[in-house]
Here is the input.
Amino acid sequence: MSFQVSGKSTFGAPISESYALRGHQAQWRSVADHGEATVTAPAVYVPVDSSFEAFAVIVRAALRQRENRIAALPGGELTVRKVLDSTLQSTGHSAAVALYAIIGIDTQPDFLWLTAGSNPRFFALVIPGYLRVIEQGWEAQSAELERLQVQAEHDWLHSTRRAPRPVPPRSSKAAGGCSCRRCLTCTRMRTPGISCCRLRAG
Here is the structure.
């Protein structure tokens, strides 16, 4: 199994990235980093530069695992959750689609639309108020897809929000505490040759 991409990024920076899995040995290299790991359980590589299809690969791989969790390379773990099922209509045609949340790539979930069925494929990616990337022929439904996603994101994130823990009272003795921050890598992915509508704010 292998993956390779080269070219230029959105702003012209060079892209050269590869990943290969031979037996149990995984190796990757990009302009950002390089490394290798021994893989003994299902895992997916999260590329620095790729297409939106990489998100679809991650979703499909995670859905095949228990609790929809899968190890990530170079490190960490990804979880996929289905957020919404919907059916779009266009000139006598219909498309059953599902909105998924990928947790673990960025500090916030990444959302992706895939087709329904046993082998879902990439259908759309919507960044509300900024970007819509959708399968050719369904451009007229991109605004409806964004409306559905905005409401679904709001409802889903609200339902998963945890109640704040009560703060224990201070004792008369000196009290101490600790805090930690976790930094997650944000991946920006692009797909050339697919219908894309940039939205200007304001």
About this structure: The first helix runs from residue 53 to 63. The chain has one domain: 2-159+189-198. Residues 106 and 184 are 6 Å apart (CA to CA).
